[in-house]
Write a structure and sequence with these properties.
Elements lengths: L2 H7 L1 H14 L13 H17 L8 E7 L5 E6 L2 H18 L16 H13 L4 E6 L3 H4 L2 H12 L2 H11 L3 E3 L2 E3 L12 H18 L3 E5 L2 E6 L2 H19 L9 E3 L9 E6 L2 E6 L1 H14 L8 H19 L5 H23 L2 H10 L4 H9 L4 H5 L9 H7 L4 H6 L1
Parallel strand pairs: 1-4
Antiparallel strand pairs: 1-2, 3-7, 3-8, 4-5, 6-7, 9-10
Helix pairs in contact: 1-4, 2-4, 7-8, 11-12, 11-13, 14-15
Length: 417
Amino acid sequence: MTQLLEEILSRENMQLAYKKVKAKKGASGIDGITTEEIDEYLRENWVEIREKIRRRKYKPKPVKRVEIPKPNGGVRNLGIPTVVDRIMEQAMMQKLTPIVEPHFSEYSYGFRPGRSAQQAVIKLLEYLNDGYTYIVDIDLEKFFDNVPQDKLMTLVHNLINDPDTESLIRKYLNAGVMIRGRYEETNKGTPQGGNLSPLLSNIMLNELDKELEARKLHFVRYADDCVIAVGSSAAANRVMHTITKWIEKKLGLKVNAEKTKVTKPSKLKYLGFGFWKSSEGWKARPHGDSITKFKRKLKQLTKRNWSVSMDYRIERLNQVIRGWINYFRIGSMKKVLARIDEHLRTRMRIVIWKQWKKSSKRYWGLRKLGAPEWMAKQSVGFGDHYQAVAKTTGLHMISKEILARRGLLSCVDYYLN
């Protein structure tokens, strides 16, 4: 057995992989074994699994196909491997990453240690502000479903040159998929959802990076999201046609002709960001679609008929606010956050009003917050006409400060801190 496979199966590496998969939790695969039940399963079966892997007899289980709806219609196929297979893929990824990383392009930012979507956006802004303002937006059609496995395995071999590990990777690619209880072979593609999939996608698309670098083009790539910035419309159209041909011929991937286009930065949506030109040059901000999605999530969490404690509601809201703002922090968004804050506070006041239920409790609550008698009575008079009562001065006594004391984050304050 090869040295690399021994390193993958080493106790230290496997324990680290186990901890990472356990921490992420996630759904069970087709065998129904959850992350909570995996300890006992491994205690009973790990020695046998390891021996099978060493002798090339191990057979990964098919992944469970789940369809995730896309915001613009259609679905994205997600494959959920069993917890055992997720641990095994994670263990491989941990040992393969240091081997393949040095071969990757500095303009590739997706699923790589110490790299992020924000760095890709900052690099793209550099290009725009250097005058490369015609964007070739490449869309690879269902990339993860269409990767030619033979081509991919040739590239894997060129980088790691380890027959035992390559054999195991091939088995994961060929594990098949269960769709509504029916088994289907996987002769192409790499299942989106597997821990090894992002690394394999980078190995495949590293060939594209090398080609773009050889042509001295300005580009950024995050997984299968690739944009090229050029200086003129004619050059952009030429690049789009020649690169499309190259991808289809050399990599055996399909480029989506409808979605691949030449566009201006102000019309581009990249990694959730939109772009605009200020007096100081090009800047990024959350794209309109990203803002709509964020508002929709906040709306869901502030539904009046959601029967949860106020503490839990605020905890969930704060998680969403922190996550969204941390992702988009490099963008300009103070004004839009101020509007979102205002709307969020209105919805939270209505939630509190509904929780107070009785007129006497509502009157007492407003008086306690310092509302004069006439003001409290006016608000109470609107009863359960929530939209109308939300506009009353009385309800505004549930101020930003009161909600902050209760624990609710202000989007603007969190962004500015």
